[in-house]
Task: structure prediction
Amino acid sequence: MINVGIVGGTGYTGAELIRILAGHSEVKISAITSRGMTGTPVAEYYPHLRGLVDLQFTDPADQHFPDCDIVFFATPNGTAMKLVPGLLDRGLRIIDLAADFRLKDAEQWRRYYDMPHECPQLLAEAVYGLPEINRTQIKTARLVANPGCYPTAVSLGFLPLLAHNAVDPGSLIADAKSGISGAGRQANAANLFGEVAEDFCAYGVSGHRHLPEIRQTLQIASGGSADLVFVPHRVPMVRGIHATLYARLVDSKLDVQALFEDYYRNEIFVDVLPAGSHPSTGSVRGANYCRLAVHVPQHSGTVVVLAVEDNLVKGAAGQAVQNMNIMFDMEESLGLQQAAIWP
Amino acid sequence: MINVGIVGGTGYTGAELIRILAGHSEVKISAITSRGMTGTPVAEYYPHLRGLVDLQFTDPADQHFPDCDIVFFATPNGTAMKLVPGLLDRGLRIIDLAADFRLKDAEQWRRYYDMPHECPQLLAEAVYGLPEINRTQIKTARLVANPGCYPTAVSLGFLPLLAHNAVDPGSLIADAKSGISGAGRQANAANLFGEVAEDFCAYGVSGHRHLPEIRQTLQIASGGSADLVFVPHRVPMVRGIHATLYARLVDSKLDVQALFEDYYRNEIFVDVLPAGSHPSTGSVRGANYCRLAVHVPQHSGTVVVLAVEDNLVKGAAGQAVQNMNIMFDMEESLGLQQAAIWP
Amino acid sequence: MINVGIVGGTGYTGAELIRILAGHSEVKISAITSRGMTGTPVAEYYPHLRGLVDLQFTDPADQHFPDCDIVFFATPNGTAMKLVPGLLDRGLRIIDLAADFRLKDAEQWRRYYDMPHECPQLLAEAVYGLPEINRTQIKTARLVANPGCYPTAVSLGFLPLLAHNAVDPGSLIADAKSGISGAGRQANAANLFGEVAEDFCAYGVSGHRHLPEIRQTLQIASGGSADLVFVPHRVPMVRGIHATLYARLVDSKLDVQALFEDYYRNEIFVDVLPAGSHPSTGSVRGANYCRLAVHVPQHSGTVVVLAVEDNLVKGAAGQAVQNMNIMFDMEESLGLQQAAIWP
Amino acid sequence: MINVGIVGGTGYTGAELIRILAGHSEVKISAITSRGMTGTPVAEYYPHLRGLVDLQFTDPADQHFPDCDIVFFATPNGTAMKLVPGLLDRGLRIIDLAADFRLKDAEQWRRYYDMPHECPQLLAEAVYGLPEINRTQIKTARLVANPGCYPTAVSLGFLPLLAHNAVDPGSLIADAKSGISGAGRQANAANLFGEVAEDFCAYGVSGHRHLPEIRQTLQIASGGSADLVFVPHRVPMVRGIHATLYARLVDSKLDVQALFEDYYRNEIFVDVLPAGSHPSTGSVRGANYCRLAVHVPQHSGTVVVLAVEDNLVKGAAGQAVQNMNIMFDMEESLGLQQAAIWP
Result:
């Protein structure tokens, strides 16, 4: 049994993490902190957890997670970097679901997140928690930087192509669409139901925060340069990311279906659909799968990859639990094998 | 381990039943039939079940469920009554999720479902599968009639009041609202996204099929007469029922909160919220709970009960699995303790 | 041509008022104020108005509406009561879309709106702007209190019954459902898309602010006492109110269909549907109609009225323009005859 | 006053055409046909048109539109081509909102629409009704082929770039997203609310019917070859198309903002937003505008055009009315200047 602490349990990512951990047979949640809700029972704040979680939120200032094996951060960007060094010193292992430890370059972090990094010395040690590429390092990591939601879908979709040098790394386009829960739970007029429902738009075309994170992963995969045009869009739904990826094939005759099936043959949570498929976000709602389909339409020489995930699960809390399972030598799928909720 | 057969696996109720049973540790699904999809892998038809269900749909005409302990019917009304007698003869136990065995009065069935009943001799034996009132009979039943979605929410909301003669049984009003999945999966222009989204309306005010079923339960509960005005409405969402119930209190000083808490003290899947609460359908999405709150607004002498459930879970497939657990002496909550998916 | 000023143009009600007035052939909008957006072009703030509105928001502190004939308040509750006396003194006529002048009783206002009323001396003069009952007084009014969204639908549904003493005035129940735009545009976590979508709940069962306003209208209509149980609910859609109204008939043989058709025979914006109908909110989206249907289900002695409106149009901005048309002796439907947008 | 006939009034496009024409000051609708609904009042079938349309549906077999000046076809593909020759012979002018006369190449039509063309002799004469490129020919046309919804948005977005040879015509990608009303009103399980809500997916990646139509327009615009990868997606909303367009700039220093503003300077219904904008489909809901924004993100050499329209208005019925206005020498915007409905 692993004892788990959670810093920041009131956002969507925190709520999802609690939901998943509450159903994990080898986990005991010992503490969930929240500055604003200290003293309130978690199940009063989140009625969907009534009967399943018995804790009250505690004050993060008082909370040192004395009997925990691992602490998850489900906090806004910039919080974990303040607290992680102290917790590591106490021997705790950490999975940060925010962006604090995802970029290797502190200067780039400062530029995209508008604040200086407070423990740049940990960036080299932090392991980027995408199990499909870093499983071995995750096993022994003290500090895992859980990937962003867009980066997970976009990276998993491009990886087989880049790893095999199958596409021109200067031709990458990621047209990505996300449900609104990806924007978090802050009260913000732009995210009101009245503004989001029956509406669709792009945003951040000039440069989204997830761009350097994706670029970093793709460059490692390609073993050299890789750049992309990344255009995120907001979909009037709560959960789900659909990434539509485009790249110029080096060899337009390549069997891309076989390439993808081979690459992910042993991955339990990456599911390559049969040729001709169109994965839907509904097929992964609440589940930890990333489903992929790959097309080369109209002999165009352009490969089109369709990748879907639940941004709160494989794009956040589910992947974090997958990383925890790896770190503690448990079955990688433990607590994560529920079917998607459909319809 | 129990071997389970499912007749009619392609509708929403069938899909939900498969999802729940696929995660049930003591169940093996042996066969799923579908006339239209015979030969198609279940996980090809339902991509959200990829990796979790390995069967193909089989032809119900060929399917005698030789090694099954129990067969579920998730078929349109009027199908089970043709096949159930033969299956019972072979020693199988049955849970019917359709309406075929819910009404004790065959003549009323004919009137509300527009067809004569084909095995009225079984109506007396069939046990109405609302565990909160019929748990003992369910244990030994050969044939369980799983309640309708509206009747579950409305009955659970009125039961404590009627059982204690706390309200005038001639004053009952049930203003009920359901997500569109309650209408099933038949292609019907009225259920298209374009007609349902951003729209809200009542329907069937002159007399909905669930009315006699609810009335039958309430009359048993009240030990005499009970009638109600029942107005169902369609909500632009997929899952969830919210029943708002009104009745005149006999004694306007009655502590209704205590009454409800006492009545459901030992029920794991009926959750009485603290006084002043407003349960939301989102708090039970994908979960087997019915959550209730009770109010007496403005000293009006009228009690208002708010009851929510997921129409596909506690209102259908989840309750069916709860009944199965009871029938086979398993923990009643086995396979049903997942938290609701929120947001 | 009438010159119009608008105080508070950045909320949903203000935006809708601008949309309707921009298409009104006899209106020129002279000024739109906003404290937060002073100096910003209205069409930059509201891209859906590009090409149709040429003004910038002005500071309400500097704005005395010198060449206006009428000023609309589309402000939060409690703003108009501070400014209206000064504007009336300058000879302007006023329509307030907020609640400031709806209740005749200043003490009740204080209780329900949590602040003392700042010009109680105007409450007697203010005309409640429901044209179907107060058309004559509206014609000459200096100050019109535009009704709330729920009160419009609930009142129009009960009026024919109360005016004819056809129901027991102690038996009234209003089970009302509203799209989320009724909650306004303030950034509030409870109104985020992630909280509202795929969710349905009641709220304010212990006493909603619209209750005394409705009660006041119904009591006048019944010529005596009238009370009601009022339970509002939140629907996962943007626009639309559906009120389901219940009352005990005095004479269960009464021809309620004829009663309603007679009562509203000359009303252009109240549309009584044929017997057996179920009006949908989609049929009035963006239009100024209230559509009604009336049922007496199952010989129950209970009449059920179904009333729909667009909360932002007949429930707010459209009704305000209807009132303006009456005040300035224009065709009552001018600028208001657009069909609903469907689907 | 123009007399108008409509063939096929029961689909979404037909309903929208009736809505717009009912508010057009110079139009009288003389007849609306429907095979299935002959004899039914239009306003009974479509309650949102109550009070605004007084006709009954008539049988198309009996209907020769004797006093009409123009006939609109809002029928499934393949219907207009059967009837248009006879109507032209009787001197009627025609606007076909279906695909029958959009492609110049009858063989390509057969391939993409799975049936032989029945009057290929008219394909050369038919004018493609995109006013922004064919205004002069539309004025005098007997037969106008109203563009498809995707082709309108994609073409308007690429035209300025191709007309100025500003991009590599072999590098075009159109990642397009449409609300579900674009799929029409046929009862089809794939379009049920339960399947569409909270779901997002691509479809038709291997080759959508709108591809040859778009290609035909782009090739004319580029004065030579032009090809594109076209990936349509389904958005869980009713109305709206968002096309995200990608192309490689020939000169990465080109001022694309100025190029677009110049190109559309005199177009009333194409609205180029300021640099840095992200148009949303909500800003054109119910309105005849196509709003565009143009970006060159991260000095990538790739231009990104964002184009939105209401698929039922500028993408169908509104554009048809715009064409009618041109054909009959009326103000091009007559009946089309309503603001979008927001929120």
Notes: The interface with chain C takes residues 12, 180-181, 185-189, 191-198, 236-238 of chain A (CB under 8 Å). Residues 77 and 99 of chain A are 6 Å apart (CA to CA). The domain at 2-125 of chain A is CATH 3.40.50.720 (Rossmann fold).
